[in-house]
Amino acid sequence: MKGTLWLAWRQQRALILTGAAVLLAVTAWVVVMRADMTGFISSHHIPTSTCKGWDGDCQSEAARTLLDDYNGPLRALGGLSTALPVLIGIFWGAPLLGRELESGTWKLALTQGVGIGRWFTTRYALAAACTVLGSAVLAALVAWWWSPVSNMLDGLYWHDGYVFNATGPAAVACALFGLAAGTAAGLLIRRTLPAMAAVLGAVVAVRFALNSFRSDWIPPQLWISKGDAPRREIGSGWSTGEFGFVDAAGRRHAVADACPWGEGLPDLKTCMAQKGFTGRYRTVYPSSDFWTFQWIETGIFLGLAAVLTVLIAYVLRRRLL
């Protein structure tokens, strides 16, 4: 290792080694906790396969104890993975250029016959490679630990933020976005602490926006049950909360307005016959939509990271040359 790569490693090794140590400790904790969890499942003969979904058969005391004991630690690990892009943006991205510009040490680096493009590319590439590796390992740990109790009644489902935001390619892409946002903030603001505050707001705002509009990316599936038969069970799907009745023309009618039930009101079957309803419906995102949502948000985060990286390169050449 020599030249700009050696310099980049020397300046970032404290962060890299600290991150590696934390990740190693988290990995050891997850291995122990998951082994303890699977041992509990085996010793108490909990049928996790039949516990899946909102209609799962998870009424045993052992199943409730399982979820009570491990939902909290799983949320903690998922929360750490979800917060990782913010942490990377604050403690790695913002100082990457911001500290150099604030202290003026970037000028010394460029006096060694190294062009600004090579100087930045090496530093940024090392940080990006470590970001991808670290976030991917953490996301994999969340998914691995969660898998034996995934989508269990009263547990964590694929669409919960502690799982969706913490696993899959979107988690890795978001970490890259956090690095790019922090680096851009440090370059534009040129002061480390204000850049840290700016990247905190930016990453949280983007994450909040995506969480809020996630259900708008694709339409839900329409599930229809004929006659007065019970609506199809949601299982591990993500319900939109929209359900009711359909008439012969296929028009949908919300349940509260169509056939409310209660004392003194006609029963469901009578009401449906009186109003000409031919079936019942609900709208649901099935669990298979997890990957569709993941790849959509992965593309958004990677696109934002790419735009910010191009902006950083442009501003560097304009301001520092």
Question: Could you characterize what this model shows?
Answer:
A hairpin with a 4-residue loop joins strand 2 (238-247) and strand 3. Strands 1-4-2-3 form a four-stranded antiparallel sheet. Helices cover 66% and strands 9% of the residues. The protein contains ten helices and four strands, in the order αααααααβββααβα. By secondary structure, it is α+β, with helices and mostly antiparallel strands. Helix 1 packs parallel to helix 4 (116-146) and helix 4 runs antiparallel to helix 6.
Regarding quaternary structure, what we see is single chain
Q: Biggest β-sheet, characterized?
A: 4 strands, antiparallel
Percent range of helical residues = 55-70%
Number of contiguous helices: 10
| E-strand count | 4
Which stretches are poorly predicted, pLDDT < 50 over at least 5 residues? none
Order of helix and strand elements from N to C terminus: HHHHHHHEEEHHEH
What average pLDDT do the residues reach? Answer: 86
Structural class: alpha+beta
Strand content: 5-15%
- Radius of gyration (Å): 26 Å
- Biggest sheet strand order reads 1-4-2-3
Instruction: Compute the separation of the termini in Å.
Output: 27 Å
Sum up the overall morphology in one term: flat
Record keyword descriptors for this entry:
66% helix; alpha+beta; four-stranded antiparallel sheet; 4 strands; 9% strand; single chain; 321 residues
